[in-house]
Specification:
Length: 373
């Protein structure tokens, strides 16, 4: 594989999010860019996740890590203990070097499997409460990662996070298309509308928070529109081949004049397929979900179907509405750890292992009609 520049790697991330490339290509490109001995990218707690890949790591290592050594990983536990999310750190920032060298994780596992000693890594927080581990490694015989290497990975983290969520959103939308229609909108390099699917057209025609004005997508609220236009401009900048100064998370909640639950909007670049952009080619994608659409999930239904507690049911409803765990915690005046515990209990009761499986189960379950019939 030809070594990619940082900007090209950003494009590859969004190609992967849209299903045009694979996560294995992403980690290979990342490994080459940062001169890594190995790269791990995934969620050890969700072995069925499609968002997982390794570079120069044997498959037996991944299996051992997920089944035996993940809980004893001093890097991951150190980051979680310190609350270091979405920020690249060296291994020595997360655990004392002497402690690391004495650990069973290093002596019984890393030294024999990958010779990984130096780390540049991060826990990437995700809306459904899980964390994506991004770990770049070098053997002990080589130098530790430089400040510039850490800065490069730091610049990539927002794009990794957004690409993962675009990918997950498309998977969920595909699995639950009949239960929760997802509006998809394509914009060109001038941010003009190229295409909107039926669900998006319905949302725009209603002019309840989002509208089409002079062939541009606008939010009817001033503050919402300013935030939306910044996200769109940033996505187009990335699609034009520039690594945006602030990748952001790509999410915005758009308030509605009707007072209904806000729209959840995810804005994404288009990836490497944008080498030559014309006014007729897409430069930004918008995914709009309407939690108030027919088929809405109600807490009482979930309590009856899955024996969830009121708090667990309300949490799951919040997830179907596109809220993050932080949003749910803030709205209910509880800590994020409390919300994570509720999510774990809901997953156990529904026998699901990922957000995708949980939403697919919940949105595909029988529900009472809003009109009571």
């Amino acid at each position: 594989m030809t070594e990619l520049t940082e900007s090209e790697l950003v494009g590859l991330l969004y190609d992967t999010a849209l299903g045009r490339a694979t996560w294995s290509k992403v980690v290979e490109a990342l490994g080459q860019l940062l001169d890594c001995g190995s790269v791990y990218f995934g969620d050890p707690q969700d072995v069925s996740s499609e968002i997982a890949a390794t570079y120069r790591i044997p498959s037996r290592f991944v299996e051992l890590y997920q089944t035996e050594f993940y809980k004893h990983d001093p890097w991951a536990t150190g980051a979680a203990r310190l609350g270091v999310y979405n920020k690249v750190k060296r291994g020595g920032d997360l655990v004392d070097r002497a402690v690391f060298e004495r650990s069973a994780f290093y002596n019984d596992f890393l030294r024999h499997e990958t010779d990984a000693y130096h780390l540049a890594g991060a826990l990437v927080g995700r809306p459904h409460g899980r964390s994506l581990i991004v770990g770049c490694h070098r053997p002990k015989a080589l130098e530790a990662f430089s400040d510039e290497a850490l800065a490069q990975l730091d610049r990539l983290l927002p794009h990794i996070s957004r690409a993962a969520e675009v990918h997950q959103s498309l998977l969920v939308a595909h699995d639950t298309l009949d239960q929760m229609p997802l509006g998809t909108i394509q914009l060109n390099r001038e941010a003009r509308l190229l295409h909107a699917n039926e669900a998006a057209q319905h949302i725009l025609r209603s002019e309840d928070g989002l509208e089409l004005a002079n062939n541009h997508i606008r939010a009817t609220g001033r503050n919402d529109d300013q935030a939306l236009q910044r996200l769109i401009a940033g996505a187009i900048e990335i699609s034009n081949g520039y690594a945006a100064r602030d990748g952001g998370d790509g999410f915005i909640r758009v308030s509605r004049k009707s007072g209904k639950i806000p729209y959840s909007v995810l804005v994404s670049p288009v990836g490497l397929d944008r080498i030559v952009l014309s006014s007729s080619s897409p430069a930004a994608l918008l995914f709009v979900s309407d939690p108030a659409a027919e088929g809405v999930v109600r807490p009482n239904d979930l309590r009856e179907l899955f024996d969830l507690s009121p708090a667990e049911a309300q949490l799951v409803v919040g997830l179907t509405e596109g809220k993050s765990l932080r949003d749910i915690a803030d709205l209910n005046g509880v800590s994020i750890s409390t919300v994570r515990t509720l999510l774990q209990r809901a997953a156990a009761k529904t026998e699901t292992n990922s957000q995708r499986d949980l939403l697919r189960l919940v949105l595909g379950s029988p529900r009472k009609r809003t009109d009571g019939r």
